[in-house]
Specification:
Elements lengths: L19 H8 L4 H20 L9 H13 L11 H17 L8 H16 L15 H9 L6 H15 L4 H5 L6 E4 L2 E8 L4 E8 L8 H14 L21 E3 L2 E3 L8 H14 L9 H13 L4 H8 L6 H9 L12
Amino acid sequence: MSGIERYQPSGALSAEVLSPEAKAALAAGRSDATRRAYREDREAYVAWCAGRNVSPLPATQELLVEYVTHLTITPRPRTGRPLSPSSIERTLSAISTMHAELSLPRPETKGARTVLAGYRHRLARAKDPAAKPRQSSAAVPAALRQMLAVLDRDTLIGKRDAAMLLLGYAAATRSSELVALDIKDVAECDEGIEVEVYRVKMRKFTRAAVPYGKNPATCPVRALRALLTAMREAGRTEGPLFVRIDRHGRVAPPMMRHGKPIGDSSGRLTTDAASDVIERLADAAGLEGRWRGHSLRRGFATAAVRAGASMVRVARQGGWTDNSTSLSRYFEEGDQWADNPVAGL
């Protein structure tokens, strides 16, 4: 029994009485990364409460104030620094949703958030980088061209990575959405290709229309066609679109650890592996910044805003809701030089 389950009140939703199918259904409501983060946050909270001989559930406002204060001043063993403000925000969300899942009233977090606001202000005054949200750098077209330039596109790996870059940008995918694509999800048409993407935040499929590019070197349609042709020659005509490939050009080679097979048996790339590809290419191209899989999605939104595309069209291409607050930030930031109010004064 986990530390959390010991504190479940009578009538709460107990993980012990749920079937394996029901547990899987509950877990599927969040992404893998979110589930891992929430589990670690909750376990750390329960352990901290156990060390002080206090019950973690239900959490009082005073208890959360104490816990958040602890997080702002206690260095983590791995980094030697306290958690960042954004990580503490996630921790509060993990604790709050834990109450809801166990049929408990959500805790009052106003006091804890006041502590967090002071912590963020203190970091900002000290010009600590942790005060700013960690965002991936935007892979705008200029950056994409630099990353593509370091690829050997005569190899299967080069073809795969080029198609990942260009399709991930043109369809504005998250890493998890990109690696979830199968060969059958892509259909060619006269204008280019249509890609059926499952948008994880919207919980629905969308069809992203990707036209031919003017420059063959940066055309996502041609890059994808080159990959599919090479995959077909390697004997792969179905299954995952983006798969692991070793330096010898073998598709989906077996992976072993301690004599046991690991990884997806179909060879499908993981979300982290896709992000590592972007990071590796950006590093090889000499680009500064934080480059991850989300850089492609940010790059699309940034470039589309600068080109004057409407918010609705950008949202529907990239699987944002029409009134998305995260997308609206790109429109609020815009281009700091175009239409600069200081120009000409």
